From TrEMBL:
It comes from Charadrius vociferus (Killdeer). Pfam families: Beta-prop_IFT80_2nd, TPR_IFT80_172, WD40. The keyword Repeat applies. This is Intraflagellar transport protein 80 homolog. Component of the IFT complex B, at least composed of IFT20, IFT22, IFT25, IFT27, IFT46, IFT52, TRAF3IP1/IFT54, IFT57, IFT74, IFT80, IFT81, and IFT88. Interacts with IFT88. Interacts with IFT57 and IFT70B.
Length: 757
């Protein structure tokens, strides 16, 4: 990926002295109204409008000579659920201590005395209900939409050079010398403050999608932080101070500006591309709404434009590159065939997976099959700017500012799920997951909640209640294969613990089971339900995660682990296709890992009930992990004969004996119940026995598990075998030399004669 930059031969912001001498004035700020229109402000007191479609530049207004613009921010496009196609007005801060509310046509609607000294930055919150300004006087002030002062959030002795809103518009991040400070709007709430740089911090930005913070300083470094102030990335020192940083809207990329320097970086900090344009210092960077291009305000009077090109997508033997804004190149590495895909409008987002390429342009969506690149399926988009594309085997999901849309690969709209307080602009691949029958979305308002929808209808799954965890969830992922009733979701919480649970829940509370700790990143396989993740210093593959519901003790034997120190700090799993896993290291390099192909073949045999083939495969491979997986799969599918062979092969003799005892049981229901008991599902086993009238067996199960109260309760309720329960209880107490203290047992012991052994 790189930036394709363009600069005019002569700058448009020029100041003439005595109509003869022309002087290039620095451009202080830029801002996009639409994806093709930009406004720029300069020390020549002019506001210019740039139309990228017609390459025209026009003057919007000439400001009074005492107004030197410093910062510009357009009013948000989506307010109160209504989404405008373009921004209508902007705030302009200036060196005279005022901020100015200016319409799109250039009319100054209001000028407000805000600070003593220059107003160094001004930012609207995401809802457009409040404006924050900071100044040379060290004050941070919150204003209403109409420019009325609401509060002075902070006051300090040093100038505040930059400010940004938190994703929920409840907190404000601002600079204070070498410090970064996050202050909530609520009074008396805890303030977070940390040293960010060794020099003065000049710029900061906070992304609403990934919740990460950028900072840039006079120490010539840029840094990436999480919202708790933990350092995720620190750049090497540049030659000159970093004068600007800015996140792309979707939070996948950011740009860095310095003297004669423009850099494109991944969200984790490593650099995709470095350009050295003749710009002077780049004082301000603004990304277009669709994230395909950016503009920079240059110290030499220029406005630099840069398009993001040469993005790459890979899947199996296909490699696709965006070579121009409207052209993609498809390379089949097997036969070296090359195809060119031309689009009518510029490409905004694309995704390649499951044999299909889905491309969204500014107006349309194209669906290509990897078998035929010549005839794409094309349909028009309701809303131009698609922010996310997710694919599953049968469907794909488009996310834009208006909502979530699930389509089939034939271009048919399947459903459009909704939930209360839905904000689609902050969804990304970590907070949304799609499988063939299920869609899962992490709630932003309450980060402990995951909403789960049925793909076909778009309605909440099961009893309609969302899945709730005890702590905040960071990343979610649905498994891709198998039956809907067995669909599992894996998620990482704030403590970096990995949990797994079933998505189908009707009334009963589903067990959420922890299967890993210190997990950085995870991914499900595309063709079988194998999960991989990087936990602490180990790369781990859970060949059959469902083992936790079948035989928890067996889980460690179904894992594959290897040392992950080669991945360095903060690696991310990019793909898990077939038996190949692609991991991106913190420096941007890709590492490809191969795992054994046999577990996937075992999954295939088991899903089509080929138990003999599965046993034959395990005997051929001679691997304990495979036998452990087969044992768990057999118990899950109630095939106890195969389970007996598999458990015997891994030396679990006690379990083999128990399985043999199950086989000798007289009735089918009894065998079913004891199979459930084997998996630890006591409640379900008891319910099954009671439903089929096997009262004594249900009581005996509880006695064997020392659930004395429940055993007595069942005996009393069904008026049978009370004496048996009391006899077993008495023998139990005698064995341990204890006396009866349970009031219920004492009460019933008085009225029942207990047979002596």
């Amino acid at each position: 990926m790189r930036l394709k930059t363009s600069l005019l031969k002569e700058p448009k912001h020029i100041l003439y002295f005595l109509n003869l001498i022309k002087h290039k004035e620095l451009v202080s700020c830029v801002g996009w109204t639409t994806a093709e229109e930009l406004y720029s402000c300069s020390d020549d007191h002019q506001i210019m409008k740039w139309n990228l479609l017609t390459s025209e530049t026009t003057r919007v207004v000439k400001l009074p000579d005492d107004i030197y613009p410093i910062d510009l921010h357009w009013f948000p496009r989506s307010v109160g659920g209504k989404k405008q196609s373009y921004a209508e007005s902007f705030v302009l801060t200036s060196s005279d201590g005022k901020f100015h509310l200016i319409s799109k046509l250039g009319r100054v609607e209001k000028s407000v005395e805000a600070h003593c000294g220059a107003v160094l930055a001004g930012r609207w919150n995401y809802e457009g209900t409040a404006l924050v300004t900071v100044g040379e006087d060290g004050q941070v002030k919150i204003w209403s939409k109409s420019g009325m002062l609401r509060s002075t959030l902070a006051q300090q002795g040093t100038p505040v050079y930059s400010v940004a809103w938190g994703p929920d518009s409840e907190k404000v991040l601002y600079t204070s010398g070498k410090q970064l400070i996050i202050k909530p709007l609520q009074p008396n709430a805890k303030v977070l403050q940390w040293k960010g740089h060794d020099g003065l911090i000049l710029k900061t930005d906070w992304n609403s999608v990934n919740d990460l913070i950028l900072s840039a300083g006079e120490d010539c470094k840029y840094k990436v932080w999480d919202s708790y102030g933990r350092l995720l990335y620190s750049s090497q020192p540049h030659e000159y101070p970093i004068t600007s940083v800015a996140w792309a809207v979707d939070g996948e990329l950011f740009a860095v500006g310095s003297f004669h320097t423009l850099r494109l970086c991944d969200k984790t900090g490593w650099s995709y591309a470095l350009e050295k344009p003749n710009t002077g210092s780049i004082f301000n960077i603004a990304w277009s709404i669709d994230g395909t291009q950016l503009a920079g305000a240059c110290g030499n009077g220029h406005v630099i434009f840069a398009h993001v090109v040469e993005q790459r997508w890979e899947w199996k033997n296909f490699e696709i590159t965006l070579i121009k804004r409207r052209t993609m190149e498809v390379h089949n590495v097997v036969n070296d065939a090359v195809d060119l895909l031309e689009f009518r409008d510029r490409v905004i987002k694309a995704s390649l997976n499951y044999g299909h390429l889905v491309v969204s342009t500014s107006l349309q969506c194209y669906v290509f099959s990897t078998k035929n690149w010549n005839t794409p399926l094309i349909f028009d988009l309701k809303e131009g700017t698609v922010s996310l594309i997710l694919q599953a085997e049968r469907y794909f999901l488009l996310v834009d500012g208006g909502g979530l849309y699930l389509y089939s690969y034939e271009g048919r709209l399947i459903s459009s799920p909704k939930f209360p307080g839905m904000r689609t602009d902050i969804l990304n691949a970590q907070t949304v997951s799609l499988s063939n029958d299920t869609l899962a979305i992490k709630d932003k308002a309450d980060e402990k909640v995951i909403y789960i929808f049925e793909a076909l209808s778009g309605k909440p799954l099961g009893d309609g209640k969302p899945l709730t965890h005890k702590t905040e969830i960071v990343e979610i992922a649905l498994d891709q294969k198998g039956l809907t009733s067995e669909r599992k979701i894996a998620f990482i919480d704030k403590n970096r613990d990995l949990y797994i649970t079933s998505v189908k829940r009707f009334g009963k509370e589903q067990k959420i089971v922890k299967i890993g700790t210190m997990v950085q990143t995870l991914a499900w396989n595309d063709t079988s339900n194998i999960l991989c993740g990087i936990q602490d210093t180990r790369f781990t593959v859970w060949y059959y995660p469902n083992t936790v519901y079948v035989d928890k003790d067996l889980l460690p034997k179904t894992l594959y682990e290897k040392d992950a120190s080669e991945f360095s700090k903060n690696p991310q799993i990019v793909h898990f296709v077939g038996n190949q896993i692609t991991v991106r290291r913190a420096d941007g390099s890709l590492i490809h890992l191969n795992i054994s192909p046999y577990p996937a073949i075992l999954h295939e045999y088991v899903s089509s009930s080929k138990w003999e083939d599965a046993v034959r495969l395990c005997r051929f491979v001679k691997d304990q992990t495979m036998w452990a997986c087969l044992a768990a799969m057999a118990v899950a599918n109630k095939d106890m004969a195969t389970a007996e062979i598999a458990y015997a092969s891994i030396g679990e003799i006690d379990k083999v004996q128990y399985i043999n005892s199950i086989k000798d049981l007289p009735s089918k229901e009894s065998r079913m119940a004891h199979t459930l008991l084997f998996s630890g599902n006591t409640q379900e086993a008891e319910t099954l026995l009671l439903q089929t009238g096997l009262i004594y067996q249900a009581i005996q199960v509880n006695i064997n598990l020392y659930n004395w109260d429940r055993a007595l309760e069942l005996a009393v309720k069904h008026k049978t075998h009370v004496d048996t329960v009391l006899a077993y209880r008495q023998k139990f107490l005698e064995d341990f030399g204890k006396k009866e203290t349970n009031k219920r047992f004492l009460q019933y012991a008085e009225g029942v004669s207990i047979p002596q052994n």
